[in-house]
Design brief:
40% of the residues lie in helices and 14% in strands. Strand 4, helix 8 and strand 5 form a beta-alpha-beta unit. Bound molecules: pyridoxal-5'-phosphate. Pyridoxal-5'-phosphate (PLP) binds next to helix 5. Pyridoxal-5'-phosphate binds next to helix 5.
Length: 406
C-alpha cells in the first residue's frame, strides 16, 4: 500500500492529529527540510525547449508532473491542498486567495446562464449577496430556503437546478442541516451538486463528503489557518469536480500567495488539537451563557435547547468554538457589555486562537432595515462569540464581569 493511501482518512488507519501533522506531506522534501519550503516564484523554467514541448504534451493528456506558472500552483500550494484533501477524506482540493474566492469560483464553475441555485437562507452575507445581487446579472437565479427545511428544499428544486449551497453549521445561529438527507433529495431530483460550506465545522467535527455532499468549501481564514493571520479559501471533492473548478480558477485567478500557503500548512498541523480546545471552550461558554439571567437565548448546537441539537449530535463529533447569544437589554446595554470584554477582541472573523466578539446588526447587516434584519434573525441583541483557545475559566470570568454591565 502506498504511503498516501495508508494515510488516507477513509481507512481510518491514522488519527486526525497524525493526519493534521503528516497528511499530504512527502517525507522527502527539498534538501531534507522537515517543513515544506515556500516556493516564492512566479514561474518554473524549462531546461530546454524540448523539455517544454514534452511537458505541454503531458499537460494536454492530464499527465503533467511538474509546475509551470504560479497561477496554476506550486509545491507549497500542492502540499496545502493535499493536506486539506486528506483531512477531508477527499480525492482532491484546491486553495484560493480567500473563502469568497472559493465560493464564487466553485459556483461559477458549476452553474451556467439559465440555470438555478438553491441556497440556505442563513449563509455568510457576502455569499448571499453573490447569489442575490451578482449572479442574476449573468442569468442565474437563486431560491433561498430555510437551511434545515427539507420540504422547502424539495419544492425549490427544478430540472435546471445546478447547485445547492448550504452552510453547516450556519453563520451566525449555528443551524445544522441534515447533510445525508439533503444529498439524497438533491441527487434523486436533479443533477445538481451539493456544496457544503463547512467553515464553522472543519473536517474534525463534520465529514460532509462521507455524508453525500459533492463539494466542501472552507474559508481557511478561519479554523484551518487558525491564527487570525491569513486570508484563504479551499474547495475539496472528487478529482473530476475539482478539475472542473480548477479550469475556471485559471481564468478568475484568485490565487493564494505562497507565503500564505505555507502558513496554512503550519496552521493545519495543529488543527486537531486546536479544534478540541475550541470545542471544549465553546461548550463551556455556551453552558455558562444559557444559565445566565441576563442572556435571553443561546445558540450552540451542543446545547439541548438548540433546535438542531439532536441532528448535530448525530452528524457532528464536536460543535466548534462559535457561540451566538442574545442579551436581555437594548443596544446600549449590548455596547456596554462588548466594551467591557477584556479577553475577546471586538471584530469580524472567527476560528482563530484569539477569541473574537462580533455584533452582526451594527457591522455586517447595518445597511439593512431593522425589519429586514429581524427577518434574518439578526436582532440588536445578538452577539457572535468565537471562543479561541484561551482557558475556559478565564473566558467565563471575563464574560461574567462584562455581563454585570448589562
Ligand atoms: C461561512 C463562511 N464562508 C465564507 C466566508 C468568506 O471567507 P473569506 O473571508 O475568507 O473570504 C466566511 C467569512 O466570514 C464565512 O463565515
Amino acid at each position: 500500500m502506498s504511503k498516501k493511501r495508508a494515510r488516507g482518512h477513509k481507512d481510518r488507519s491514522l488519527g486526525f492529529s497524525t493526519l493534521s501533522v503528516h497528511g499530504g506531506q512527502d517525507r522527502q522534501k527539498p534538501d531534507d527540510s522537515i517543513t515544506t519550503p515556500i516556493f516564492q516564484t512566479s514561474t518554473f523554467v524549462f531546461r530546454s525547449l524540448a523539455e517544454g514541448v514534452r511537458y505541454a504534451r503531458l499537460r494536454s493528456q492530464g499527465k503533467a508532473t511538474r509546475f509551470e506558472y504560479g497561477r496554476y500552483g506550486s509545491p507549497t500550494h500542492r502540499d496545502a491542498e493535499r493536506k486539506i484533501a486528506e483531512l477531508e477524506g477527499a480525492e482532491a482540493a484546491l486553495v484560493f486567495a480567500s473563502g469568497m474566492a472559493a465560493v464564487s469560483t466553485a459556483l461559477l464553475a458549476l452553474v451556467s446562464q439559465g440555470e438555478h441555485i438553491v441556497c440556505g437562507d442563513e449563509v455568510y452575507k457576502k455569499t448571499r449577496d453573490l447569489c442575490q445581487v451578482v449572479l442574476p446579472r449573468f442569468g442565474v437565479e437563486t431560491t433561498f430556503i430555510p437551511t434545515t427545511d427539507l420540504r422547502a428544499l424539495k419544492r425549490a428544486l427544478r430540472p435546471n437546478t445546478a447547485a445547492v449551497l448550504l452552510e453547516c453549521p450556519t453563520n451566525p445561529r449555528l443551524f445544522v442541516p441534515d447533510i445525508a438527507r439533503t444529498a439524497r433529495l438533491v441527487h434523486q431530483h436533479c443533477s445538481a451538486r451539493l456544496l457544503v460550506d463547512s467553515t464553522f465545522a472543519t473536517p474534525i467535527n463534520l465529514r460532509p463528503l462521507e455524508l453525500g455532499a459533492d463539494l466542501v468549501i472552507h474559508s481557511v481564514t478561519k479554523y484551518l489557518g487558525g491564527h487570525n493571520d491569513i486570508l484563504g479559501g479551499a474547495a475539496t471533492g472528487s478529482k473530476e469536480l475539482i478539475d472542473q473548478v480548477f479550469e475556471l480558477h485559471k481564468y478568475l485567478g484568485a490565487v493564494m500567495d505562497a507565503h500564505c500557503a505555507y502558513l496554512l500548512i503550519r496552521g493545519l498541523k495543529t488543527l486537531d488539537v486546536r479544534m478540541r480546545k475550541h470545542n471544549e471552550n465553546g461548550l463551556a461558554v455556551a453552558r455558562f451563557l444559557a444559565r445566565h439571567p441576563k442572556v435571553k437565548t443561546t445558540y450552540y448546537p451542543g446545547l439541548p435547547s438548540h433546535p438542531d441539537y439532536r441532528r448535530a449530535r448525530r452528524q457532528m463529533t464536536g460543535f466548534g468554538g462559535v457561540v451566538s447569544f442574545e442579551l436581555k437589554g437594548d443596544l446600549k446595554a449590548v455596547g456596554r457589555f462588548m466594551d467591557a470584554l477584556t479577553i475577546p477582541y471586538l471584530g469580524p472573523s472567527l476560528g482563530g486562537v484569539e477569541s473574537l466578539a462580533y455584533h452582526p446588526a451594527s457591522l455586517t447587516f447595518n445597511e439593512l432595515s431593522a425589519k429586514e434584519r429581524t427577518e434574518l434573525g439578526i436582532t440588536d441583541q445578538l452577539i457572535r462569540l468565537s471562543c479561541g483557545i484561551e482557558d475556559a475559566d478565564d473566558l467565563i470570568a471575563d464574560l461574567k464581569q462584562a455581563l454585570k454591565r448589562v
